Write a sequence for this structure.
């Protein structure tokens, strides 16, 4: 049934009386602007290289883009090899290309359960494919020769694990491919030790092993190894495949990241919800279930479920009405996927979740508007019909206060086409950063009225210890730091958010920490009298229905925000933030400053530069007249050299207001430098662009005087004091950057 739904047949207009001869077809998909741009970039890249990378965020249409690219580059009569890491993805790719092809296709499938290394928690059976699959070389060649031709584009869909079959077939007469598309290309990275055979995944890089004119590596999550890993691989005489190795992967032809996709309205943005559950509260609330000898429910399970339930109900911390309006999206979630470490854990999560929700409702009959939970489990051991049925169940519409959860271990992460989700819940650490990002991609797909996709991270805070002490347990909270680090490494916007937390304190647009505890008295179920004017978006009090919004709010479980939130944000900066090594630039800048001083001195000393000399001496005379008659020419030159270097810093720091354009002293110095600029004094400063970018990234979005003041202090302590050693000691206004003085005065 699923295969019929994905075909181009318009079943809504199909008539049984007309029969198959009059099958109505839907219009073929058209390229969207971002996909056309990707094809143009890749086509241009292939003009100069025979291999390269196309990086596109999950949900932006990589598969469809690769189809249209193949039709343009290869077309009828050509051959394409499309490689995937699983039978499930192979099935999806075959159906997607067949449904949207603009030229006739001759499709072939090469895979088997054994060769794909099928595991019960992650893949499907080759028997479930829409077209026959084989790993018999003779059968593949016979079918290929019979079906390929000048009027069709021949496409061999294969798993990486079956790549040896392709090699044997080419040795027996299968032609060289015009294009190889390596889907989920991050899977082709890794280390091969000197005394071991290459894995199937890395063999694709060798053009002698699989002959092709062009190779395209396609992924949302490039995997690049650090210098330490590369060094260790070299010491072990091992071969390392990393996606920054252009000899293997070619250059990056095109990139469309998460941030840019959100800005272009291709994806929904995501928000992280960390649910910090007081373990004493969970133990008390679900004491009967935890102590029941008939089940294996433990406190950790109860904590995770309590956190997930509150997160799905969106019991967020909106401290003001304005903030609720700005960051709202308060309607409870309706669809979610949960990731556990194993199939057994996933099944237990489903069983316990519904059990605990039912128990809480029974024990708290007066609480209204509690979110109903329906939970089911799925794994790769189930056949395709069962899995599709469960995915269909997940996306069925339902009442406002019902959320459906599909729990799994791995089978819904990489590349699997799941419906648009409200949330993804990580109950345990994932195998890799790529696993995390691929899973997050599931919640960023657009849908009607969707504002955010949510990443829910439930954690427990043990009783009797401070949050700061509790968070020292690296193993217990590994899932939080792993997920946030993964987001930081693949999204520049989240990276900037993490690195500004010490300046802004919190930003509920990107992340919220919700404490779930009974340290604060629980709000009453019924509140007589008028509505609370200070309520959040929708303005209601628990127990008092308000048309259009109150029925969509779960009554609050007792919680407070404060010390737990501050501790987690502080730990996040420590665990995931970048250190700003501005002091490392001091030596470079000191050298450039000395070069500027030498060049300005030479320009001013040359009688041929009369205009420059006049401007300099006029400025020096004005300084002596207004400030100090003992100022030497050398000190004036030092000031100019310093201003030349520091102006871009403060342009970045005060992007909304340029002190350099309004301060009289700064204007005077800039006037002299403008005259001297004919001599290209700025050439040396080009090497500082990364430093300037670092300052800009740190300062972006900081609109409070206190935050900017902290950056100024950092710059002075780590940068100016070390970069300009020759004038740091006096600490007088004349040697302190003018912009700093101006900012201090106007703050």
């Amino acid at each position: 049934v699923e295969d019929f739904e994905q075909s181009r047949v318009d079943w809504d207009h199909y008539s049984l009386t007309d029969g198959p001869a009059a099958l109505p077809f839907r219009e073929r998909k058209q390229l969207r602007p971002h996909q056309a741009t990707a094809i143009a970039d890749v086509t241009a890249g292939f003009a100069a290289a025979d291999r390269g990378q196309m990086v596109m965020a999950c949900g932006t249409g990589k598969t469809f883009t690769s189809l249209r690219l193949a039709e343009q580059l290869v077309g009828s009569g050509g051959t394409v090899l499309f490689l995937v890491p699983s039978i499930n993805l192979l099935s999806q790719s075959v159906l997607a290309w067949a449904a949207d092809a603009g030229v006739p296709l001759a499709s072939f499938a090469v895979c088997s359960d054994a060769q794909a290394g099928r595991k019960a928690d992650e893949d499907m059976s080759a028997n479930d494919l829409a077209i026959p699959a084989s790993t018999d070389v003779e059968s593949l060649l016979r079918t290929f020769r019979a079906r390929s031709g000048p009027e069709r584009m021949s496409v061999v869909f294969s798993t990486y694990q079956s790549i040896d079959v392709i090699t044997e077939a080419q040795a027996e007469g299968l032609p060289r491919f015009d294009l190889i598309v390596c889907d989920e290309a991050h899977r082709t990275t890794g280390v091969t030790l000197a005394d071991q055979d290459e894995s199937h995944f890395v063999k694709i890089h060798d053009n002698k092993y699989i002959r092709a004119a062009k190779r395209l590596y396609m992924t949302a999550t490039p995997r690049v190894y650090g210098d330490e890993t590369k060094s260790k691989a070299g010491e072990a005489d091992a071969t390392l495949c990393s996606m920054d190795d252009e000899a293997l992967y070619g250059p990056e032809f095109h990139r469309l990241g998460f941030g840019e996709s959100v800005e272009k309205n291709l994806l929904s943005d995501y928000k992280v919800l960390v649910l910090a559950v007081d373990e004493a509260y969970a133990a008390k609330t679900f004491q009967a279930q935890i102590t029941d000898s008939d089940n294996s429910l433990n406190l950790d399970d109860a904590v995770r479920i309590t956190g997930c339930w509150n997160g799905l109900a969106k019991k967020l911390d909106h401290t003001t009405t304005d903030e609720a309006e700005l960051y709202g999206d308060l309607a409870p979630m309706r669809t979610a996927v949960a990731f556990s470490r194993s199939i057994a854990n996933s099944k237990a999560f489903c069983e316990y979740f519904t059990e605990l929700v039912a128990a809480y409702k029974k024990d708290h009959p007066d609480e209204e508007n509690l979110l109903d939970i329906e939970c089911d489990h799925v794994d790769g051991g189930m056949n395709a019909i069962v899995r599709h049925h469960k995915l269909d169940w997940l996306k069925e519409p339902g009442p406002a206060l019902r959320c459906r959860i599909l729990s799994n271990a791995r089978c819904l992460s990489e590349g699997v086409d799941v419906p648009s989700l409200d949330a993804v819940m990580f109950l345990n650490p994932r195998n890799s950063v790529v696993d995390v990002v691929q899973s997050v991609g599931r919640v960023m797909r657009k849908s009607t009225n969707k504002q955010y996709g949510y990443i829910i991270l439930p954690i427990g805070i043990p009783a009797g210890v401070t949050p700061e002490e509790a968070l020292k347990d690296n193993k217990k909270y590994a899932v939080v730091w792993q997920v946030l680090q993964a987001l930081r490494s693949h999204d520049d916007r989240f990276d900037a958010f993490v690195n500004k937390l010490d300046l802004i304190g919190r930003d509920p647009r990107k992340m919220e920490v919700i404490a779930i505890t009974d340290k604060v008295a629980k709000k009453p179920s019924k509140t007589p009298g008028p509505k609370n004017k200070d309520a959040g978006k929708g303005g209601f009090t628990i127990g008092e229905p308000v048309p259009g919004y109150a029925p969509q709010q779960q009554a609050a479980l007792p919680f407070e925000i404060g010390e737990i939130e501050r501790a987690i944000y502080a730990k996040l900066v420590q665990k995931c933030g970048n250190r700003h090594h501005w002091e490392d630039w001091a030596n470079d800048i000191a050298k450039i400053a000395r070069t500027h001083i030498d060049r300005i001195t030479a320009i001013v000393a040359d009688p041929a530069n009369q205009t420059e000399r006049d401007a300099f001496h006029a400025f020096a005379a004005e300084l002596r007249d207004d400030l100090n008659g003992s100022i030497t020419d050398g000190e004036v030159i030092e000031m100019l050299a310093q201003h030349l270097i520091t102006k871009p810093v403060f342009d970045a720091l005060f992007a909304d207001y340029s002190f350099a354009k309004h301060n009289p002293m700064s204007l005077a110095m800039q006037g002299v430098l403008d005259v001297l600029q004919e001599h290209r004094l700025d050439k040396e400063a080009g090497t500082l662009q990364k430093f300037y970018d670092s300052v800009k990234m740190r300062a972006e979005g900081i609109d409070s005087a206190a935050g900017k003041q902290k950056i100024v202090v950092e710059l002075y302590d780590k940068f100016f004091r070390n970069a300009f050693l020759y004038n740091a000691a006096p600490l007088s206004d004349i040697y302190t950057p003018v912009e700093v003085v101006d900012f201090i005065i106007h703050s």
DSSP finds 28 helices and 16 strands in the chain.
